[in-house]
Amino acid sequence: MKAVFLPGDKRVEIRAVEVPTPGPGEVLIAVRASCICRSDLSLYYGNAVVGGGAAGSCVTGHEPSGDVAAVGPGVDQIAVGDRVAVYLGIGCGICEFCRQGNYFLCPRWSCIGFTADGGNAEYIVVPERNCLKIPDWMSYVAAAISTDAFGTLYSACKKLGISGASVLGIWGLGPMGTAGVLAAKALGARVAVFDPLAERRDFAVGLGADRAFDPAAAGVRDDLDAFTDGAGLTAAIDCSGSTGAHNMALDAVRPNGKVAFIGECRESTIRPSDQLIRKQITLMGSWYFNAFEYAEILRVLKSAKIDLERLATHRFSLDEAETAFRLFDERKTEKAVFIV
Q1: Model pTM?
Q2: What is the DSSP code string of 256-317?
Protein backbone atom coordinates (compact mmCIF):
# COMPACT_ATOMS: atom_id res chain seq x y z
CA MET A 1 0.00 0.00 0.00
CA LYS A 2 1.01 3.67 -0.30
CA ALA A 3 1.94 5.56 2.87
CA VAL A 4 3.31 9.04 3.57
CA PHE A 5 6.42 9.55 5.72
CA LEU A 6 8.06 12.79 6.88
CA PRO A 7 11.78 12.27 7.58
CA GLY A 8 12.41 15.99 8.27
CA ASP A 9 13.98 18.92 6.42
CA LYS A 10 10.70 19.43 4.51
CA ARG A 11 11.09 16.07 2.79
CA VAL A 12 8.01 14.02 1.94
CA GLU A 13 8.32 10.35 1.02
CA ILE A 14 5.59 8.14 -0.41
CA ARG A 15 6.63 4.58 0.33
CA ALA A 16 5.20 1.20 -0.58
CA VAL A 17 4.66 -0.79 2.62
CA GLU A 18 2.79 -3.94 3.55
CA VAL A 19 -0.88 -3.71 4.49
CA PRO A 20 -0.91 -4.17 8.28
CA THR A 21 -2.66 -7.14 9.89
CA PRO A 22 -4.90 -6.54 12.91
CA GLY A 23 -3.85 -8.41 16.04
CA PRO A 24 -5.97 -9.30 19.09
CA GLY A 25 -8.32 -6.46 19.94
CA GLU A 26 -7.32 -4.51 16.82
CA VAL A 27 -9.15 -3.27 13.73
CA LEU A 28 -7.94 -2.72 10.16
CA ILE A 29 -9.42 0.42 8.60
CA ALA A 30 -9.47 1.26 4.91
CA VAL A 31 -8.73 4.98 5.05
CA ARG A 32 -11.07 7.28 3.11
CA ALA A 33 -9.95 10.70 4.40
CA SER A 34 -7.00 11.92 6.47
CA CYS A 35 -6.24 15.53 7.44
CA ILE A 36 -3.02 17.49 7.74
CA CYS A 37 -2.62 19.32 11.06
CA ARG A 38 -0.30 22.16 12.03
CA SER A 39 1.44 19.83 14.50
CA ASP A 40 2.38 17.60 11.54
CA LEU A 41 4.72 20.38 10.43
CA SER A 42 6.95 19.59 13.39
CA LEU A 43 7.58 16.26 11.63
CA TYR A 44 7.89 18.06 8.30
CA TYR A 45 10.66 20.24 9.75
CA GLY A 46 12.18 17.46 11.87
CA ASN A 47 11.45 18.69 15.42
CA ALA A 48 8.46 16.54 16.37
CA VAL A 49 6.27 17.85 19.19
CA VAL A 50 5.41 14.24 20.08
CA GLY A 51 8.71 12.41 20.20
CA GLY A 52 10.23 9.05 20.87
CA GLY A 53 10.90 7.55 17.45
CA ALA A 54 13.42 8.14 14.72
CA ALA A 55 12.51 10.75 12.10
CA GLY A 56 10.40 9.22 9.35
CA SER A 57 9.89 5.95 11.24
CA CYS A 58 6.07 6.14 11.30
CA VAL A 59 3.35 6.65 8.74
CA THR A 60 2.07 10.18 9.33
CA GLY A 61 -1.50 11.36 9.89
CA HIS A 62 -3.42 11.54 13.16
CA GLU A 63 -6.85 12.53 11.80
CA PRO A 64 -8.13 9.66 9.62
CA SER A 65 -11.55 8.18 8.94
CA GLY A 66 -12.65 5.20 6.88
CA ASP A 67 -14.33 1.80 6.70
CA VAL A 68 -13.52 -1.21 8.85
CA ALA A 69 -11.98 -3.78 6.51
CA ALA A 70 -11.05 -6.54 8.98
CA VAL A 71 -11.02 -7.23 12.71
CA GLY A 72 -8.63 -9.20 14.88
CA PRO A 73 -9.44 -11.84 17.51
CA GLY A 74 -11.51 -10.63 20.44
CA VAL A 75 -13.09 -7.64 18.68
CA ASP A 76 -16.83 -7.64 19.41
CA GLN A 77 -18.08 -4.03 19.30
CA ILE A 78 -16.77 -3.04 15.88
CA ALA A 79 -17.67 -4.96 12.72
CA VAL A 80 -16.45 -5.11 9.14
CA GLY A 81 -18.21 -2.35 7.17
CA ASP A 82 -18.57 0.06 10.10
CA ARG A 83 -17.75 3.66 9.24
CA VAL A 84 -15.38 5.17 11.80
CA ALA A 85 -13.19 8.08 12.76
CA VAL A 86 -10.02 7.34 14.73
CA TYR A 87 -9.01 8.57 18.19
CA LEU A 88 -5.33 9.49 18.04
CA GLY A 89 -4.13 8.40 21.50
CA ILE A 90 -3.39 4.70 22.00
CA GLY A 91 -3.29 3.89 25.71
CA CYS A 92 -2.83 0.77 27.80
CA GLY A 93 -6.58 0.53 28.39
CA ILE A 94 -6.41 -0.18 32.12
CA CYS A 95 -4.79 2.81 33.87
CA GLU A 96 -6.97 5.47 35.52
CA PHE A 97 -6.64 7.85 32.57
CA CYS A 98 -7.60 5.23 30.00
CA ARG A 99 -10.60 4.20 32.11
CA GLN A 100 -11.64 7.89 32.08
CA GLY A 101 -11.42 7.98 28.28
CA ASN A 102 -8.29 10.16 28.27
CA TYR A 103 -6.04 7.73 26.39
CA PHE A 104 -3.58 10.50 25.53
CA LEU A 105 -2.79 10.93 29.25
CA CYS A 106 -1.81 7.27 29.66
CA PRO A 107 1.79 6.96 30.94
CA ARG A 108 2.41 4.34 28.23
CA TRP A 109 0.54 6.07 25.42
CA SER A 110 1.53 6.33 21.79
CA CYS A 111 0.20 8.75 19.18
CA ILE A 112 -0.81 7.65 15.70
CA GLY A 113 1.09 9.59 13.08
CA PHE A 114 3.92 10.38 15.51
CA THR A 115 4.97 7.28 17.45
CA ALA A 116 2.60 4.74 15.85
CA ASP A 117 1.65 4.36 12.22
CA GLY A 118 -0.98 6.91 11.22
CA GLY A 119 -3.65 7.44 8.61
CA ASN A 120 -1.89 9.09 5.66
CA ALA A 121 -2.02 5.70 3.97
CA GLU A 122 -4.43 3.29 2.37
CA TYR A 123 -4.89 1.30 5.60
CA ILE A 124 -4.30 1.75 9.32
CA VAL A 125 -4.54 -0.63 12.30
CA VAL A 126 -5.74 0.68 15.66
CA PRO A 127 -7.20 -0.82 18.85
CA GLU A 128 -10.95 -1.39 18.77
CA ARG A 129 -11.49 1.22 21.50
CA ASN A 130 -9.91 3.87 19.24
CA CYS A 131 -12.67 3.47 16.65
CA LEU A 132 -15.34 6.17 16.86
CA LYS A 133 -18.43 5.10 14.94
CA ILE A 134 -19.80 7.81 12.66
CA PRO A 135 -23.42 8.21 11.54
CA ASP A 136 -24.68 7.83 7.99
CA TRP A 137 -25.22 11.60 7.64
CA MET A 138 -21.52 12.36 8.25
CA SER A 139 -19.04 12.30 5.37
CA TYR A 140 -15.57 10.83 5.73
CA VAL A 141 -14.03 14.30 5.37
CA ALA A 142 -16.26 15.72 8.11
CA ALA A 143 -15.46 12.71 10.29
CA ALA A 144 -11.72 13.28 9.95
CA ILE A 145 -12.15 16.96 10.86
CA SER A 146 -14.47 16.12 13.76
CA THR A 147 -11.69 14.64 15.87
CA ASP A 148 -8.51 16.66 16.38
CA ALA A 149 -9.78 19.91 14.88
CA PHE A 150 -13.39 20.26 16.00
CA GLY A 151 -13.24 17.83 18.93
CA THR A 152 -10.24 19.55 20.49
CA LEU A 153 -11.81 22.99 20.26
CA TYR A 154 -15.23 21.84 21.41
CA SER A 155 -13.63 20.23 24.47
CA ALA A 156 -11.64 23.41 25.16
CA CYS A 157 -14.82 25.49 24.96
CA LYS A 158 -16.46 23.19 27.50
CA LYS A 159 -13.50 23.52 29.86
CA LEU A 160 -13.77 27.29 29.56
CA GLY A 161 -17.49 27.18 30.35
CA ILE A 162 -18.49 28.76 27.03
CA SER A 163 -22.19 29.61 26.82
CA GLY A 164 -24.53 32.28 25.52
CA ALA A 165 -23.13 34.64 28.17
CA SER A 166 -19.56 34.28 26.92
CA VAL A 167 -17.44 36.73 24.95
CA LEU A 168 -14.60 34.63 23.59
CA GLY A 169 -11.39 35.63 21.81
CA ILE A 170 -9.56 33.17 19.54
CA TRP A 171 -5.97 33.83 18.46
CA GLY A 172 -4.66 32.03 15.37
CA LEU A 173 -7.02 31.13 12.53
CA GLY A 174 -5.57 27.98 11.11
CA PRO A 175 -7.84 24.92 11.08
CA MET A 176 -7.94 24.75 14.89
CA GLY A 177 -8.92 28.38 15.32
CA THR A 178 -11.61 28.26 12.66
CA ALA A 179 -12.99 25.03 14.16
CA GLY A 180 -13.10 26.94 17.45
CA VAL A 181 -15.33 29.57 15.84
CA LEU A 182 -17.82 26.86 14.86
CA ALA A 183 -17.72 25.25 18.31
CA ALA A 184 -18.10 28.50 20.25
CA LYS A 185 -20.92 29.79 18.07
CA ALA A 186 -22.75 26.47 18.49
CA LEU A 187 -22.56 27.05 22.25
CA GLY A 188 -23.95 30.58 21.87
CA ALA A 189 -20.89 32.77 22.45
CA ARG A 190 -19.98 36.07 20.86
CA VAL A 191 -16.59 35.50 19.21
CA ALA A 192 -13.73 37.84 18.32
CA VAL A 193 -10.88 36.41 16.26
CA PHE A 194 -7.28 37.53 15.78
CA ASP A 195 -4.92 36.74 12.91
CA PRO A 196 -2.46 38.82 10.86
CA LEU A 197 -3.68 37.32 7.56
CA ALA A 198 -6.68 39.15 6.10
CA GLU A 199 -7.93 36.13 4.15
CA ARG A 200 -8.00 34.05 7.31
CA ARG A 201 -9.92 36.76 9.17
CA ASP A 202 -12.44 36.93 6.32
CA PHE A 203 -12.80 33.14 6.32
CA ALA A 204 -13.53 33.15 10.07
CA VAL A 205 -16.17 35.87 9.67
CA GLY A 206 -17.78 33.74 6.99
CA LEU A 207 -17.97 30.93 9.54
CA GLY A 208 -19.78 33.16 12.03
CA ALA A 209 -17.14 35.14 13.96
CA ASP A 210 -18.63 38.42 15.20
CA ARG A 211 -15.48 40.52 14.80
CA ALA A 212 -12.06 39.95 13.27
CA PHE A 213 -8.94 41.85 14.27
CA ASP A 214 -5.40 42.16 12.97
CA PRO A 215 -3.44 41.74 16.23
CA ALA A 216 -0.66 44.00 14.92
CA ALA A 217 -2.94 46.85 13.83
CA ALA A 218 -2.79 50.23 15.55
CA GLY A 219 -5.68 50.71 17.95
CA VAL A 220 -6.62 47.04 18.09
CA ARG A 221 -6.95 47.13 21.89
CA ASP A 222 -9.33 50.11 21.68
CA ASP A 223 -11.39 48.27 19.07
CA LEU A 224 -11.53 45.20 21.28
CA ASP A 225 -12.59 47.32 24.26
CA ALA A 226 -15.43 48.68 22.14
CA PHE A 227 -16.46 45.14 21.18
CA THR A 228 -16.62 44.08 24.85
CA ASP A 229 -18.09 47.41 26.07
CA GLY A 230 -14.91 47.92 28.06
CA ALA A 231 -15.42 44.81 30.18
CA GLY A 232 -12.87 42.55 28.48
CA LEU A 233 -13.27 39.02 27.22
CA THR A 234 -14.74 36.35 29.48
CA ALA A 235 -12.47 33.73 27.93
CA ALA A 236 -9.72 33.28 25.37
CA ILE A 237 -8.15 30.48 23.33
CA ASP A 238 -4.73 30.67 21.74
CA CYS A 239 -4.20 28.36 18.77
CA SER A 240 -1.09 30.11 17.48
CA GLY A 241 1.55 29.10 20.02
CA SER A 242 2.90 32.66 19.84
CA THR A 243 4.24 34.45 22.91
CA GLY A 244 2.74 37.68 21.60
CA ALA A 245 -0.67 36.05 21.35
CA HIS A 246 -0.30 34.54 24.83
CA ASN A 247 0.27 37.98 26.32
CA MET A 248 -2.44 39.68 24.28
CA ALA A 249 -5.00 37.05 25.31
CA LEU A 250 -4.08 37.26 28.99
CA ASP A 251 -4.26 41.06 28.87
CA ALA A 252 -7.62 41.03 27.09
CA VAL A 253 -9.43 38.71 29.50
CA ARG A 254 -11.42 40.31 32.30
CA PRO A 255 -10.89 39.44 36.01
CA ASN A 256 -11.97 35.86 36.85
CA GLY A 257 -11.74 34.99 33.15
CA LYS A 258 -10.31 31.79 31.70
CA VAL A 259 -7.63 31.22 29.06
CA ALA A 260 -6.71 28.01 27.23
CA PHE A 261 -3.43 27.51 25.37
CA ILE A 262 -3.84 25.00 22.52
CA GLY A 263 -1.17 25.97 19.98
CA GLU A 264 2.06 24.03 20.43
CA CYS A 265 4.88 26.08 21.98
CA ARG A 266 8.06 24.89 23.67
CA GLU A 267 8.44 28.03 25.80
CA SER A 268 6.80 31.40 26.36
CA THR A 269 7.12 34.47 28.55
CA ILE A 270 4.16 35.96 30.41
CA ARG A 271 3.68 38.30 33.39
CA PRO A 272 2.05 36.21 36.14
CA SER A 273 1.57 38.99 38.69
CA ASP A 274 -0.33 41.35 36.39
CA GLN A 275 -1.97 38.83 34.08
CA LEU A 276 -2.87 35.98 36.41
CA ILE A 277 -2.58 36.70 40.11
CA ARG A 278 -4.08 40.20 40.28
CA LYS A 279 -6.94 39.27 37.95
CA GLN A 280 -7.45 35.77 39.36
CA ILE A 281 -7.43 34.30 35.87
CA THR A 282 -7.51 30.57 35.25
CA LEU A 283 -4.89 29.52 32.68
CA MET A 284 -5.00 25.98 31.33
CA GLY A 285 -3.49 23.83 28.65
CA SER A 286 -6.01 21.97 26.53
CA TRP A 287 -5.22 19.19 24.09
CA TYR A 288 -7.62 16.84 22.34
CA PHE A 289 -10.85 15.49 23.84
CA ASN A 290 -12.11 12.67 26.00
CA ALA A 291 -13.12 9.61 23.95
CA PHE A 292 -16.47 9.53 25.74
CA GLU A 293 -17.20 13.09 24.56
CA TYR A 294 -17.51 11.99 20.94
CA ALA A 295 -21.21 11.11 21.15
CA GLU A 296 -21.85 14.62 22.49
CA ILE A 297 -19.70 16.12 19.72
CA LEU A 298 -21.83 14.33 17.12
CA ARG A 299 -25.05 15.60 18.74
CA VAL A 300 -23.79 19.19 18.65
CA LEU A 301 -22.68 18.89 15.03
CA LYS A 302 -26.10 17.60 14.04
CA SER A 303 -28.26 19.91 16.16
CA ALA A 304 -26.30 23.03 15.20
CA LYS A 305 -26.16 21.92 11.54
CA ILE A 306 -22.40 22.48 11.43
CA ASP A 307 -20.84 21.76 8.05
CA LEU A 308 -17.27 20.75 8.85
CA GLU A 309 -16.46 20.27 5.17
CA ARG A 310 -16.35 24.06 4.89
CA LEU A 311 -13.00 23.88 6.68
CA ALA A 312 -11.56 21.51 4.05
CA THR A 313 -10.42 24.06 1.50
CA HIS A 314 -8.01 21.72 -0.33
CA ARG A 315 -8.10 18.00 -1.14
CA PHE A 316 -5.23 15.84 -2.35
CA SER A 317 -4.38 12.27 -3.28
CA LEU A 318 -1.59 10.50 -1.42
CA ASP A 319 0.55 10.91 -4.55
CA GLU A 320 0.26 14.69 -4.10
CA ALA A 321 1.59 14.63 -0.53
CA GLU A 322 4.63 16.82 -1.26
CA THR A 323 2.41 19.54 -2.74
CA ALA A 324 -0.11 19.20 0.09
CA PHE A 325 2.45 19.72 2.85
CA ARG A 326 4.19 22.55 1.00
CA LEU A 327 0.96 24.51 0.46
CA PHE A 328 -0.14 23.86 4.03
CA ASP A 329 3.24 25.03 5.33
CA GLU A 330 2.93 28.19 3.21
CA ARG A 331 -0.51 28.85 4.77
CA LYS A 332 -2.18 28.65 1.39
CA THR A 333 -4.78 26.18 2.67
CA GLU A 334 -7.03 25.86 5.66
CA LYS A 335 -7.70 22.18 6.36
CA ALA A 336 -5.91 20.08 3.76
CA VAL A 337 -7.30 16.56 3.39
CA PHE A 338 -6.00 13.43 1.70
CA ILE A 339 -8.78 11.57 -0.09
CA VAL A 340 -7.88 7.89 -0.38
Answers
A1: 0.95
A2: EEEEEE-S--S-----HIIIIITTT-EEEE--S--GGGHHHHHHHHHHTT--GGGGEEEEE-
